Amino acid sequence: MSTQLIKFKGVIVAMNSCYDSQGNVCTESAKKLTRFLIDKGVHGLYVGGSTGEGLLQTTEERKQVLEAVLEEAKGEVTVIAHVGALSTRESVELAVHAEQSGADALSAISPFYYRYGEESVAKHWNAIVDSTSLPFIIYHIPSTTGFSLTSNLLREMAKNPKIIGVKITTASTYELQQFKRIGGDNFVLFNGPDEQYLAGRIMGAEAGIGGTYGVMPELFVSLEKEYRAGRIAEAQKLQYIINDIITDLLDLPIYAALKSLMNMRGIPCGEVREPLPKLTEAHQARLSAIYEKIMNAVRGLASEVIK
């Protein structure tokens, strides 16, 4: 892999949004979250994606969040700006802003709601790519966009040297491996499903981008270290612990649960923006149990280091 792409390897957190008590973007909390994650040893930050509620924010709000993250990060970690939007015009505006603000790369889902064909999607992505000098990462998440990236389209898109990889959020590690085969050695595959981080790494992904990383960054950073050291059995044990936590999280409104857990970890993120479902009193006992499970796992890592 080229030296220019090394900075995209490893654990890249899909950051939560941060709102104040009135539901407005809180840049100070965004900076606190950025510092928290950097201090935990993550390798990068993905801003404005699904976990970041980017598609529920105005264009100006998305710019504010990215600026806050970049101001705090100061180049210490890689920052990828998700600029996917309903319209090409908005995506291009966000892309230009991201470059001007100092982001390391761009990423975007395919346009959605209307049933777009491959030609329209390619035109949309290429417009974003052509609007800046930044590298671009395709975000493949057919379960939410309704559009599935094909091998043929990827081959065409990958001919552009500014398109450096794909974030693949499907359950198929076979598809991941096939995308890697198409892209080659100088093409980065980002594993999407958090519950298969290790499987994705083994099958060719150089990195992972995920939303649950933020509430338990220590576990994912440790998993990555074990994998890089070739200690696959130890990495597998960590993935099992992570998956037990994720299984519990999936019984709750996931985005609201993640934000509440970040609040419990000392980073005020506020509530999710409607129409995302919020937590109720009935969820609190299970949320507390998940928090304890996370912290027990983190303490377990610390005790292993001491030994």
If you had to describe this structure to a student in words, what would you say it looks like?
By secondary structure, the protein is of the alpha/beta class. Helix content is 48%, strand content 12%. The protein has 12 helices and 8 strands. It has helices at 27-39, 59-73, 88-101, 118-130, 142-145, 151-157, 173-183, 197-202, 217-228, 232-249, 254-264, 284-306, and strands at 10-14, 44-47, 78-82, 105-109, 136-140, 163-168, 188-191, 207-210. An 8-stranded parallel barrel has the order 1-2-3-4-5-6-7-8, surrounded by 6 helices. Helix 7 (173-183) links the parallel strand 6 and strand 7. Helix 1 (27-39) crosses helix 2, helix 2 (59-73) packs parallel to helix 3 (88-101) and helix 9 packs antiparallel against helix 10 (232-249). The mean pLDDT is 96.
Strand order of the largest sheet: 1-2-3-4-5-6-7-8
Largest sheet: 8 strands, parallel, barrel
Strand content: 5-15%
Number of helices: 12
Instruction: Enumerate the spans where pLDDT stays under 50 for 5 or more consecutive residues.
Output: none
Q: How many strand elements?
A: 8
- Computed over alpha carbons, the radius of gyration is 18 Å
Structural class label: alpha/beta
